[in-house]
Every structure is written in C-alpha cells, then in structure tokens.
Design brief:
The protein has 416 residues and is α/β, with parallel strands linked by helices. The chain has two domains: 2-19 and 82-307, Aspartate Aminotransferase, domain 2; 315-415, Aspartate Aminotransferase, domain 1. It contains 14 helices and 16 strands. It has helices spanning 2-16, 34-44, 67-76, 90-101, 145-151, 178-184, 207-217, 259-262, 277-290, 296-305, 310-313, 315-330, 362-373, 401-415, and strands spanning 106-108, 111-113, 117-120, 134-139, 155-156, 159-160, 163-165, 171-174, 189-195, 223-227, 253-258, 271-274, 336-337, 345-349, 378-379, 392-396. The strands form four sheets. Strands 3, 4, 5, 6, 9, 10, 11 and 12 form an eight-stranded mixed sheet that branches. The longest helix is centred in the last third of the chain and has 16 residues, at 315-330.
Length: 416
C-alpha cells in the first residue's frame, strides 16, 4: 500500500513541480583561466539563465545575483557528468546541514541526520493510479495541483478557504475551514495536501493549526504532502511552522522545499524533498525512473552557496521591507489590503475603487489593469477549481524598489 501510494504521490509531485531539464554544453577543452570561462558562460551559455547583467531568472528574479551565487554557479560548470544522488552526496550533505539549522531531525540509513532529502526536479509522469484514494487540498491553491491529481487518477475532495469579510463587505483575510476539513478527512483519505506560507493568499499556518491537523489525521492512514517552498519568507517575527518539526505529523509527511524561491534563482530549477526513511526509500525508487537526477552543475553550485547562510537567514527582513514599502503606499488608497504574513504576494480587495472597472470580475479587472494601467496582477479566482469572485487580486512585491515605485504611482492614479 505504501509503495503504491508513494508512486501515486510522486505522480502528483512530478506534475506540480515539473520542468524541462536543460541540456548542458560540454567543453572538451576547458580554459585553465576560470575568468575566461566565466566570460564565455555569462555572455552566451543559456544553461545558467543569466542576462547581460547576470540576474537570476524566474518569477522572483528581479535581483542581481550575489557574487557568491555567480561564483558557485560558474565553478560548478566544470562538472559535466550526470550525478545521481546515490553517487554524489554534496548537495545532500548540504541539505542535512541546512535542515539542522532549521532544527529538523529524521532517521537516515540507520543514523540520526537532520533530514532525508533528495534534489527534486521531475520532468516525467509515472502512470500509477490512485483511483480509490481521496486527496484533500485546501482551495485556493497552486494551479497545477488539480491537474496533477486528475492525471494520477486521484479522487479530489476540495475544501475551500472562503474569504472572511468585515461589516462593510470587504475581504479581510482567508481562514482555514476546520469544520469542513473535519468532514472531508476520513478513513478513506490517502493524502492531505497543505501549503504554508500559502500561495496565493499569503496566509501562514500556526503551530495550533498543525496540532488540529494531527488530530484529524490521527485515526487514518493518510499521508501529508506539505508544500513549504516559501518557508524562509515569514514576517513580523513569526517562525515558519513545518510539519517536519511536528512530533506526530513528521512521521507521515513529505516536505517540499525550493532553492529557487529561497535564492531568487527559480530558473535553476532545484529543490528537495524530505521525509521519514520508510517513505523516502520508496520515493527514491520511483524518482530513479521518473527523472533520475536534477542537473548536476546546479547541484554543486547550490551546495557551495549553502555555505553562505545569510542568503536565507536575512530573507525575511529582505522581503518584509519590500512588503512594507509596497503596502504603506497603498494604505492611503481605496485598495483594501489583506494580511501578507508570508510569501512575496500582497492580496488586495479592489471593490471600493471609485472607477467603473471596480465592478468587473477579478479576471477581467486584471486584464484591464495589465493592458491599460500596465501593472500586472493575478485574480485569486484563478486559484479555485471553479472561479469564486471576491474582488481580490494578488500583487507580487518580489521586485526592485524602482519597479515597485513605478507600479505604485500607476495604482495610486486609479485608487486615490
């Protein structure tokens, strides 16, 4: 049962986090001068996904790479062989060190390590079926979850987080629907999918939330898939509450983390999965034939870069400054801001804007905002299986201050 379920879960993982691995150019005559190699790579080689000014590429890539990141990536290019983690443990050992910093301890190969991890970048789909399984995700959710569940043959039980409104009818926040979750989780449930910090709402699970989840799954054999890719983006002196630190939930959970999100290099396409040994043993068997390995150079590059802990320990302060700058300038407008406790997203209710377009549904409003005002936003309704129009949209503040300032100036013209 465990083996079949892990096959099914990996199908879901593969689709949620799938990308196409890059084919790396081989240099038969590597220059002895690393500087000349750096010039050659940064000027023409697409594998690092750098532009002329060597920025990280990806959704959160509006920043210059640090010198340490550039050095780590460049130095790793000389490694040209494919490295499966059963053969090369550099990044795996770095994951262990990283998890130790996060106070996570799991059993691995008969010894106590901070975690059992594996780099993860699946581009394939395994064809296992879970037609009798029930999978309970909370909606709104990351938009590839549902297609992944469908393709794996899972039976989806969705539980909606409806927005909580104030007396004026404005959305104040999104809350976890515990009563509905209690009704949805039963002895037939095979997997519960959670996400904290939460995309798209920015909501963050608290320790008492994990305790309530533990109570719900205790009578069942359900496993947990915990998407924690924004784990280092939690603000206001809060701490990320990982299932891997919960004494009960960690024994039945897969935790998904992202180096790309953490280090502003989503174009590098490297993350990892941690789980108890009995689950990871089965996971590795499937992953071996699902994708075999993530690209080797970036494994070595990220392993090296993990030696610079300030890159992630200072991340909450880094993003909170951007959040506060963006939010403070919108507070004096007709946008109603929702709490952004984590991620790099700011949700806002636009229903009180004194313009005719305020009556548009979320998708149409975002199209108008992008084409006419030239500020991009995402309708939160897009993260529901069936659109729920609450007049709430999602902005991204993972941008340079000059970019945010320009967006704010344009938004203030329609909302003041």
């Amino acid at each position: 049962m465990v083996k079949r379920l892990v096959f099914s879960i990996l199908t879901i993982f593969a689709l949620i986090f799938s990308t196409t691995n890059f084919v790396y150019a081989a240099y038969p005559n590597l220059p002895s001068d690393l500087k000349s190699l750096e010039d050659k790579i940064s000027s023409s080689l697409v594998i690092l996904k750098w532009t002329g000014n060597k920025k990280g590429i990806g959704f959160a890539g509006d920043y210059n790479l640090s010198q340490e990141q550039k050095n780590s990536g460049i130095n790793s290019i000389i490694v040209t062989n494919l490295s499966n983690l059963s053969e090369s443990f550099d990044l795996e050992r770095s994951c262990f060190r990283w998890l130790r910093i996060k106070d996570v301890t799991l059993e691995y190969k008969g010894k106590q390590y901070p975690g059992t991890c594996q780099t993860f970048n699946s581009g394939g789909v395994d064809l296992a079926t879970i037609q009798t399984s029930l999978i309970v995700p909370t909606i709104p959710l990351y938009d590839s979850y549902i297609p992944a569940i469908d393709l794996a043959g899972g039976k989806l039980i969705s539980v909606k987080m409806f927005p909580q409104k104030n007396t004026e009818g404005l959305v104040e926040k999104y809350v976890l629907p515990w009563d509905d979750l209690a009704k949805a989780i039963n002895s037939n449930t095979r997997l519960v999918m959670i996400n904290s910090p939460h995309n798209p709402t920015g909501m963050v699970w608290q320790s008492e939330d994990l305790n309530r989840l533990a109570e719900l799954v205790r009578p069942t054999n359900a496993l947990i898939c915990s998407d924690e890719v924004y784990e280092h983006m939690v603000y206001d002196n809060q701490h990320h509450q990982s299932v891997s630190r919960h004494p009960e939930l960690k024994e039945r959970s897969f935790v998904i983390s992202s180096f790309g999100k953490t280090f502003h290099v989503t174009g590098w396409k490297v993350g990892y999965v941690s789980a108890p040994e009995y689950l990871m043993t089965e996971f590795r068997k499937v992953h071996q034939f699902n994708v075999f390995t993530v690209n080797t150079p970036m494994q070595y590059g990220i392993s090296s870069y993990l030696d610079y802990p300030t890159a992630y320990t200072e991340l909450p302060t880094f993003y909170q400054k951007k959040r506060d700058f963006f939010a403070s300038e919108l507070l004096h407008t007709q946008f109603k801001l929702l709490p952004s406790q984590g991620t790099y997203f700011q949700c806002a209710d636009y229903s009180q804007l004194k313009i005719p377009e305020a009556q548009l549904d979320e998708a149409t409003f975002c199209q108008w905002l992008t084409s006419e005002i030239q500020v991009a936003a995402i309708p939160v309704s897009a993260f529901y299986s069936k659109p729920v129009n609450s007049h709430v949209i999602r902005f991204c503040y993972a941008k340079q201050e000059a970019t945010l300032q320009l967006a704010l100036e344009r938004l203030q013209k329609i909302a003041s």
